[in-house]
Design brief:
About 35% of the residues lie in helices and about 25% in strands. The protein has five helices and five strands. The protein is globular and about 45 Å long. It has a five-stranded parallel sheet with strand order 3-2-1-4-5, with helices on both faces. Helix 2 links the parallel strand 2 and strand 3.
Length: about 120
């Protein structure tokens, strides 16, 4: 079984991902955090992307791919991504045995066309 305290946060470069990072960096049960972004801008650590988080703890930043998340050993994945990205990668992560918390609107509606009708 995958370790649920080993957490992947996908989409850290956006507002929701950044706010989630601040919460998880202070959470006593979140022992192993890895953050994923489409473009890491050459950063290897979260504080290289966000200097204001210096002193909050060290956490690696990786380029986003389902393979990278799966190979990281993460048991839990938070998706702070646009709904199109969440809709694409959430099923793959679930199939790999991850627990997934999607913070987008991708899975809030019963019909796929509902989101298109609202936009």
């Amino acid at each position: 079984m995958k370790d649920l305290n080993n957490i992947a946060v996908v989409g850290v470069s956006g507002y929701t991902g950044f706010e989630l990072a601040k919460i998880l960096l202070r959470h006593p049960e979140a022992h192993a955090l890895t953050f994923y972004a489409r473009d890491t801008q050459g950063a290897h650590c979260l504080t290289e992307l966000f200097p204001q988080l210096r002193g909050w703890g060290q956490a690696p930043v990786r380029t986003l791919s389902v393979k990278a998340i799966t190979e990281s050993g993460a048991g839990m994945a938070f998706l702070a991504t646009p709904h199109e990205v969440s809709a694409e990668i959430a099923p793959q992560l679930l199939d790999s045995g991850h627990r997934v918390v999607d913070l987008s609107g991708a899975f809030r509606f019963g019909q796929a066309g509902t989101i298109r009708a609202l936009v």
